[in-house]
Amino acid sequence: xxxxxxxxxxxxxxxxxxxxxxxxxxxxxxxxxxxxxxxxxxxxxxxxxxxxxxxxxxxxxxxxxxxxxxxxxxxxxxxxxxxxxxxxxxxxxxxxxxxxxxxxxxxxxxxxxxxxxxxxxxxxxxxxxxxxxxxxxxxxxxxxxxxxxxxxxxxxxxxxxxxxxxxxxxxxxxxxxxxxxxxxxxxxxxxxxxxxxxxxxxxxxxxxxxxxxxxxxxxxxxxxxxxxxxxxxxxxxxxxxxxxxxxxxxxxxxxxxxxxxxxxxxxxxxxxxxxxxxxxxxxxxxxxxxxxxxxxxxxxxxxxxxxxxxxxxxxxxxxxxxxxxxxxxxxxxxxxxxxxxxxxxxxxxxxxxxxxxxxxxxxxxxxx
Length: 368
Fold this sequence. Notes:
Layout: E1 2-7, H1 13-23, E2 35-40, H2 42-52, H3 59-66, E3 79-81, H4 96-114, E4 120-124, H5 130-143, E5 149-155, E6 174-179, E7 182-187, E8 193-197, H6 209-213, H7 218-229, E9 234-237, E10 242-245, E11 248-251, H8 254-268, E12 274-275, H9 284-298, H10 305-313, H11 317-335, E13 353-354, E14 363-366
Parallel strand pairs: 1-2, 1-4, 2-3, 4-5, 9-14
Antiparallel strand pairs: 5-8, 6-7, 9-10, 10-11, 12-13
Helix pairs in contact: 4-5, 8-9, 8-11, 9-10
């Protein structure tokens, strides 16, 4: 499915101008959407409804008919009005709080539209307040896929920003325009409307799965994307059983926390990677070395009792592999693709030596 997403303020003609630029290109790159979504304020929604959708003679259906296009899904349900936390629709975007609501609403809609792998999304940021266009472009940068596109529509003078102009008609259509202190008439048929495609950096690969499928705010999503670009930084919070990886702080189960703390301590002290304990046999030598590292890392009082008991008896390869497998899985769930920097690495299938690939200066232990 092809979807056009447009942001508008009080000038709904941005939508038909963009449609013209996409659908009526004379080259082979014409792109006709199956549906259109519009995001705006309550005032913008009313302007869009009255000018674009009021009846079959309104400008949206007139455009489709004028250029003999297939029917494009666009009705009042496709107009998304920005609201605050209480559900109150915003009439304008003026205050910092209004901008935060706009950012969250735009991010949420772009996330929902890009969640459909069968959807091809084209985003136009020509309308609305400048901050709305900025948030829309940034949201596509965060969630956009390789086949999604971003553009801005360009309209020639004197038709740009003219309330009576909606698109170049295929027939003569007089438009009244201002020329200095005089009002003159121009033919809408002569207008030139072009599309400027805007390249953008795609950051979707750096977002955790929870942000791709959940209800994260604009700021939370930006922070996650920023973390994927920052150098890795790992903090082990000794008493709480939590870790901070990049900007994300979360708790690990006792067995996984203890194993991770051991590997973090070895990385911080530039110690070489280690082999796994022997399978199906309690490996007391490996367990003794692991416990010594945990005492150095956490202090004996902070070693989880269940882990301490297991190490006293002698952990085997099955315990190690199961604990490690769940640890790496939890890191992936919390961190998304960023987890690659923080997972315990095996060093290749033939080496069988395990450890963190973080530099020593990227690892720290924090005690209350």
